[in-house]
Amino acid sequence: MEDHKILSIIEELELNWTEREQELNFLKKQLTLIEDNEQKKIYRKSLVLMLYSHYEGFCNFAFNTYIMAVNEENLLRRDAHECLVTASMHDTFTLFEDENHKENRYRQMFGKSLPNDNDLKRIAKRIHLVTSFDDLLNETLKIPDKVINTESNLWPKVLKKLLYKVGLQYDTFKQHEETIKSLLNLRNGIAHGAHTQGVDGQEYFKLEEATFSINRTIIKLIREALIEKSYLK
């Protein structure tokens, strides 16, 4: 990947995160207009909802930007990192794992009256996958958008999954896992009406510090991956 393209991608990521960070900082500054401490705590509940929204939103944007950049390289699957190859074959593996899907050559062997033999079905699909795998590796790598799924609740395990899918270090944010769990629990509690009390300043600062660190580090991980060409085999 050419240097100017890498620079453009990183600038796009940094601009997106900067705008999100500025919005959160603007909303946080409104606390200075509130004199009552209890009302400040209530106001921070809305800050938590916005903080989570930008945490998940940026992660989704960043990972999609990365796979789009890799797709634009028009690599053959055989030349790409194995995690990205697997991601690009999402639809193929979905069919392979679908017990109701009958491989075409299996139909050709037995015609319309297919024997009700699940073991035979699995064997036929496995043989089809093995015999077509070389052709699949010679196809151009295209990772579908559906691979990036934050599942509407970006728990630490979901973030790990996303990092693993795109071939980035999946345990990068181990130190923030408990804080992110707290953010998700608090956000869901507020959104569903279960959490009625306010949020104090120290608690919010801890959540903000973790999410800001994660999103900035994701930019760093993508920058390093593009520069070092770690998307290649």
List keywords for this structure.
233 residues, 2 domains, mainly alpha, 0% strand, 67% helix, single chain
In short:
67% of the residues lie in helices and 0% in strands. The chain has 233 residues and is an all-alpha fold. α2 packs across α8 (177-191).
Secondary-structure topology with pairs:
Elements: H1 3-29, H2 37-71, H3 82-88, H4 90-97, H5 104-110, H6 118-137, H7 156-165, H8 177-191, H9 201-227
Helix pairs in contact: 1-2, 1-9, 2-8, 2-9, 8-9
Give structural notes.
This protein is mainly α and 233 residues long. It folds into 2 domains: 1-75 and 144-233, no CATH class; 82-140, no CATH class. Helices cover 67% and strands 0% of the residues. The chain has 9 helices and no strands. The longest helix is centred in the N-terminal third of the chain and has 35 residues, at 37-71. The relative contact order is 0.17. The mean pLDDT is 91.
> In percent terms, what proportion of residues is strand?
under 5%
Shape: flat
Helix content: 55-70%
Helix/strand/pairing class, anyone? Answer: mainly alpha
- Major sheet characteristics: none
Low-confidence stretches: none
* DSSP, total strands: 0
Distance between the termini: 14 Å
